[in-house]
Design brief:
Blueprint lengths: L13 H9 L3 H7 L19 E5 L5 E4 L3 E2 L7 E2 L8 E6 L6 E6 L5 E6 L9 E4 L4 E5 L24
Antiparallel strand pairs: 1-2, 1-9, 3-4, 4-8, 5-6, 6-7, 7-8
Bound molecules: zinc ion (ZN).
């Protein structure tokens, strides 16, 4: 897939990264920075079904589209596809005696969850993501611009009509 993105993917400078990290709750820090996993069925985003974007909790980069979310019954928000391939980093994770593919935000490196190949058609991918790693932005609301990058951040993202 030859992907391009209008978003600026250069990482935040360390002082800004540290400032954003300091604004997180302890639960958010445990997952985003320490690669923890939240308990299933506790996430506030599980029942979210409105159109919109799911953005990185730390840096605000859009990671998933509302339309790709599905009920995996695992207790974690699950998606069939990324918002943009370039917005995710895929990292081999051999912890806990399993080989899995970890998902991180491609811009700030924060831990999001894992991707598995047992999802529904058409992609058969299941992006299993922690609620605390994401911030939901309704389609009618402006995107966050936590890094001060400017458009398309800070404005309403209008997905292409399908
Ligand atoms: Zn991020």
């Amino acid at each position: 897939m030859s992907a391009t993105t209008p978003f600026d993917l250069s990482p935040p400078a360390p002082p800004l990264f540290n400032q954003l990290a300091a604004s997180l709750t302890q639960d958010e820090r445990d997952v985003l920075l320490e690669h923890g996993t939240e308990s299933p069925f506790c996430g506030v985003l599980l029942t979210e079904k409105r159109p919109g974007l799911y953005c990185c909790r730390l840096c605000g980069l859009p990671l998933f589209l509302g339309g790709t979310k599905f009920d995996s019954r695992t207790g974690w928000p699950s998606f069939t596809a990324p918002f943009n391939e370039l917005h995710l980093a895929y990292v081999r994770d051999a912890s806990y005696g399993m080989v899995r593919t970890e998902i991180r935000c491609a811009r700030c490196g924060s831990h999001q969850g894992h991707v598995f190949d047992d999802g529904p058609p058409p992609t058969h991918q299941r992006y299993c993501i922690n609620s605390v790693s994401l911030a939901f932005v309704a389609a009618t609301d402006p995107l966050p611009d936590k890094l001060g990058r400017g458009m398309p951040e800070g404005v309403v993202w209008m997905p292409a009509a399908t």
